[in-house]
Structures are given as C-alpha cells and as structure tokens.
Amino acid sequence: MGFSTDNLKGFALALLSSGFIGASFIIKKKGLRRAAAASGVRAGVGGYAYLLEPLWWGGMITMIVGEVANFVAYAFAPAVLVTPLGALSIIVSAFLAHFMLKEKLQDLGILGCVMCIAGSVVIVVHAPQEKAITSVQEIWRLATQISFLLYVASVIVLVFVLVFHFAPRYGHSNVLIFTGICSLMGSLSVMSVKALGTAIKLTFEGKNQLAYPETWFFMLVVLTCVITQMNYLNKALDTFNTAIVSPIYYVMFTTLTILASVIMFKDWDDQDVGSIISEICGFIVVLSGTILLHVTKDYSRSTPRSAYPPLSPSLSTRLCGENGEFLKHVDEEMPPPEEMCLRRQELY
C-alpha cells in the first residue's frame, strides 16, 4: 500500500515526539529523585514536592513538546501507525537511563531496541491510510457506536477498580497497577486527541469545528485523561526503575490504543488480510523487544555478586516494608535499596 503524504507527516511527527518523550522520562525521574532527597517524601507515597523542582518541570516541558508533536501526528495518520512508534521513546529513555541514571543497558537490551526498530518499520510499511473525515460530528457518530461505548464502559470500570481497590494495596509492589491505570486512560485520551486534532485541522482549513459542543467535550476528555495519566505515571516512575516502567507502559498503552482505534475508527476494515497480519507481526516483534528490555534490566546494579550475596525470597520480604520499600539513607553511589527490593520480589 502506498505511503500517503498525510501518513508521511504523521510518521515524521511521531518520530520527533518519541525523541522528546523518551528524554522527558529521564529528566523527570532525576527531578523526582532530587525532590525526594530534599523533602524526604517520595511521589510514589503521596509526596508533591516535585512540583517545586525546576528539573521536574524541565522534564514536563520536554514531555509537553513531545505530546504536542504526537497530538498533531494523530491528525494526519491513523493510531495504528502513530502509536506503535512510541517504541522509539523506549529506546531513547533506555539509552539515556544507561548514561544518566546508571541503569545499565545489557547486550540483550540493545537487541531489544533493534527489535523495536525493526517491528516499527514493518508497521509503518503496512499501515492503513488515514480516512477522510469532514466534521467532528462524524467522529462523534463513531464514538457513540455501541461497540465503542462498551469499550469505554469497560475502561472506566477497570480504572475505578484499580484506583480504589488495587492501588492502595499493591501499587508499590506491582508495576502493573500504576501503569495499567495510565494505559487504560491513555487509550481514551488518544481517541479524544485524534478527534480534537482533526477538529482543529479542519478549522484551520476553513471548516470551523469550534462551534460544535462535541469538540469541547473531546477537549474535556483529553484534559481529564491526561491529568490522571500524569499523576499515576509519576507514581510509577518514582516507585520503579525507568527501564521497567517505560517498556511495560508502552506495551499496555499501545495494545489498548490500537484496540480502541480498531473499534472506533475501523482502521482495518479497508485492509487486506496480508497487511493486517503484517501489522500484527510487526507489533509482536515490537512487544518482544520491549519485553526483552524488561527482562534484561540492570541486574549488575541490583545484584552485584561481589558485594551483595543473593537474597532469599523470605529475607527479601523481611527487609522490605509493607509498601515494598527498603531501608533508606544510603550513599548516592550505592544501588538504590528500594529498587533492589522491588527487583528481588520480581525475580521470584
């Protein structure tokens, strides 16, 4: 299938977005660490001292720039094309974490990065063309289909269960809780971002869409979802290793977003079976790369054989607090104990 001009614009913007967003993970985490050291209260346990930390705001500005590029990309290309390219932000964050946060990237992690790139290329080559939309009301009709309304209802129920039942109990020991909330809300925010971006694009083309209440409704959904994502992403980044959060968040977010897009925008309706299978295979390659990055996280830093003998699961449990934290007050050059504790639990 030919690569249209709109798809090319969306592709270029998605690449730019990935670079900025990947860097923002690292800058924000350094800001979170600095704020926690100054206040003694980490964001993962309810602290908000990072709001006074300039470095964290630098990371937030970087993320906003990346999200704006991503926002515009959705106005030109389908979510099935734009969203998987977020894998490139994982590669950026993994390499920057290796050099700036000393979260070592293993050789197999590098292979995972290569797999992410290869899978992304396959997806780009076989991506569907963006369908012409003439008004925000047309998008509203798509959003109010029974199938998509059922998806939205399922997401809302799952988010409430995760926030009010699982997060207080397991949020600081299971990385899937915080990232799951971010991913579920993210899939809805992407659909609304695409709707809002298309409305703005049509407005600049001379077809004013700001007079329709549907445009403002989509904007409200975007704000609600983004604020929720930001809050729980901060908790995830402050509680777990960046090299863990980034790939898992990507896998969950991308899977749910593609599912939402296929349901709402019918991205695969006009494609042949071969192209759909190729996209799925490319996506599986990307997922495999991100999982490889996850399982080859910084073992040398969390389990240095010369200084730290292996801990049994029972000893690891005793050394950890109820919320999965370890004893603190360790020198900067020592491995962060809370990360050691969390990783020990994951290994067993």
UniProtKB/TrEMBL annotation:
One Pfam family matching this protein: Mg_trans_NIPA
Location of this chain's protein in the cell: Cell membrane; Early endosome; Membrane
SUPFAM superfamilies: Multidrug resistance efflux transporter EmrE (SSF103481)
InterPro entries: EmrE-like, Mg_trans_NIPA
Primary location class: membrane
GO molecular function, one term: magnesium ion transmembrane transporter activity
Name of the protein this chain belongs to: Probable magnesium transporter
